[in-house]
UniProtKB/TrEMBL annotation:
InterPro entries: 23S_rRNA-intervening_sequence, 23S_rRNA_IVS_sf. SUPFAM superfamilies: IVS-encoded protein-like. It holds the Pfam family 23S_rRNA_IVP. It comes from Candidatus Roizmanbacteria bacterium GW2011_GWC2_37_13. This is Four helix bundle protein.
Amino acid sequence: MSNTKHYDLEERTLNFAKKVREFVNKLTKSIANFEDIKQLVRSSGSIGANYIEANEALSKKDFYHRIKISRKEAKESRYWLKLVETDNKKDLELRREELIQETTEFMKIFGSILEKKVNKEF
C-alpha cells in the first residue's frame, strides 16, 4: 500500500515537471525570462528526482534529507514561477497560478512527512 502512495507522488511530481516545461515553452524569451526559465526547469525537475532518491534512501537520515531537498525545490520553483514574465496573457497567468498552487501543495506534503518524523522522535 505504501508503494502506491510513493508511486502516486512520483507520478505527480513528474507530471508537474512536464507541465512546467509546457508552460515555459509558451513564455516570451526575453533575457530575464530565459534565465528565470532555466532555473524554473531545473528546480521543477529536482522536486521529483529528489523524491525518487528519498524512496531509494539507504537510511532514514538520508530519506528525510532528500525530502527536505524536495520541499526546498518546490519552494524554489514557486519563487521562479512568480518571477517569470507572462506578458499579462490571461491563459499564462491562469496556468502560472495553477502551477504555484501545485508547488504549495508539494511543500505541504513534504512538510507533513517531515513533521511525522519530528513527532516520532518526541
